[in-house]
């Protein structure tokens, strides 16, 4: 298990160092480490199987007729070996899972790196065409942005014109109201003036009649 863990650690370290040293170095060239991993994994699985069988025989021995069932030291030893087997099994599966995860990650990185290299090694015509497509896409995005800005300005202008139209309607209605009120005021003033003239005429006639009567009385 210790050698198996060291193998996994060296596999990860070698991949990291190879990736940092050069961008053109292939990531997956550790086939010997992969074969060693498979061999050691099979060997450890066989050893764990044998250890499991031994634990089973020990358990059978403890329940045999010739062994006291209440032997605490014997039961403690059996439990201790079971714990050791469980720890070994857990450690093996954990190390194996880590190794497989590292190898899967390296496979994915290798695939991505191959795609990048194939893209970089493509013909100049394809690269030029890709650049033209990207520029055209950027022009379209700029056009869309300008159109959106124009639409926003038009919408704002429309809202302002609508607001101004409402204000003009309000002013026009107020002016009509005032214009409608002024004739009524003029007619009222005219009526007041006519009544004043009538009162003046009546008062003048009364004063004249009274004056005539006074003169007639004075002369008689």
UniProtKB/TrEMBL annotation:
Alphabetical UniProt keywords: Golgi apparatus, Membrane, Protein transport, Receptor, Transmembrane, Transmembrane helix, Transport
Lineage: Eukaryota, Metazoa, Chordata, Craniata, Vertebrata
Subcellular location: Golgi apparatus membrane
Function of the protein: Involved in transport from the ER to the Golgi apparatus as well as in intra-Golgi transport. It belongs to a super-family of proteins called t-SNAREs or soluble NSF (N-ethylmaleimide-sensitive factor) attachment protein receptor. May play a protective role against hydrogen peroxide induced cytotoxicity under glutathione depleted conditions in neuronal cells by regulating the intracellular ROS levels via inhibition of p38 MAPK (MAPK11, MAPK12, MAPK13 and MAPK14). Participates in docking and fusion stage of ER to cis-Golgi transport.
A GO term for molecular function: SNAP receptor activity
A Pfam family recorded for this sequence: V-SNARE_C
Gene Ontology CC, one term: Golgi membrane
InterPro entries hit by this protein: Golgi_SNAP_su1
Protein's membrane topology: Single-pass type IV membrane protein
Family, as annotated: Belongs to the GOSR1 family.
Name used for this protein in its record: Golgi SNAP receptor complex member 1
Organism: Buceros rhinoceros silvestris
């Amino acid at each position: 298990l210790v050698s198996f863990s060291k193998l996994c650690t060296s596999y990860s370290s070698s991949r990291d160092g190879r990736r940092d040293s050069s961008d053109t170095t292939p990531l997956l060239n550790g086939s010997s480490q992969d074969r060693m991993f498979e061999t050691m994994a099979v060997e450890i699985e066989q050893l764990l199987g044998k250890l499991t069988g031994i634990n089973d025989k020990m358990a059978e021995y403890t329940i045999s007729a010739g062994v006291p069932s209440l032997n605490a030291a014997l039961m403690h030893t059996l439990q201790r070996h079971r714990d050791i087997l469980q720890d070994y099994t857990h450690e093996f599966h954990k190390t194996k899972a880590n190794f497989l995860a590292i190898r899967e990650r390296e496979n994915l990185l290798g695939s991505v790196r191959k795609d990048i290299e194939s893209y970089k090694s493509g013909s100049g015509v394809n690269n030029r065409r890709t650049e033209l497509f990207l520029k055209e896409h950027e022009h379209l995005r700029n056009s869309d942005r300008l159109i959106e800005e124009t639409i926003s300005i038009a919408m704002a202008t429309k809202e302002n014109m609508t607001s101004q139209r409402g204000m003009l309607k309000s002013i026009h209605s107020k002016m009509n109201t005032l214009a409608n009120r002024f004739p009524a005021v003029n007619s009222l003033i005219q009526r007041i003036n006519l009544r004043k003239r009538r009162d003046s005429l009546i008062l003048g006639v009364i004063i004249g009649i009274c004056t005539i009567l006074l003169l007639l009385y004075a002369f008689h």
